[in-house]
Recover the amino acids of this structure.
């Protein structure tokens, strides 16, 4: 067993917080979870406790043979070539401040009208009720 390469951990206000950027899992880790991580980081084996199973389920820990990059590539390609899904980006404002030199959008400014915002929200609610996930 090993720690996920996609874990990001910080200490904030005395709490040990962890985020896994592959699974989007977030947690405040207690002492038993920190002890498990320390053991795994040292290359030692840990017992398959309920806590270890949960840490594996959310992606903080993975099996030694797991290739997380391959999993990401597979999920990306599944989503890229999936024909039954719908991808939609709603931009309520075009007031981007990045000024990327390759941007094709230009420097246009504008804000989506309140009426269009309301319609977009209602359309999203309808989709959530009718589209199977």
């Amino acid at each position: 067993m090993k720690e996920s390469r996609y874990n990001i951990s910080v200490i904030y206000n005395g709490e040990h917080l962890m985020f896994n950027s592959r699974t989007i899992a977030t947690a405040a880790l207690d002492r038993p979870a920190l002890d498990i991580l320390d053991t795994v980081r040292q290359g030692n084996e840990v017992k398959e406790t309920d806590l270890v199973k949960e840490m594996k389920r959310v992606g903080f820990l993975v099996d030694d043979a797991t290739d997380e990059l391959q999993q990401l590539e597979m999920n990306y390609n599944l989503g890229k070539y999936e024909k039954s899904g719908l991808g939609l980006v709603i931009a309520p404002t075009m007031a981007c401040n990045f000024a990327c030199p390759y941007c094709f959008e230009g420097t246009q400014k504008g804000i989506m009208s309140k009426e269009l915002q309301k319609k977009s929200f209602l359309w999203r609610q309808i989709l959530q009720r009718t589209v199977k996930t």
About this structure: The helical segments are 31-41, 50-57, 68-81, 114-130. The mean pLDDT is 85.
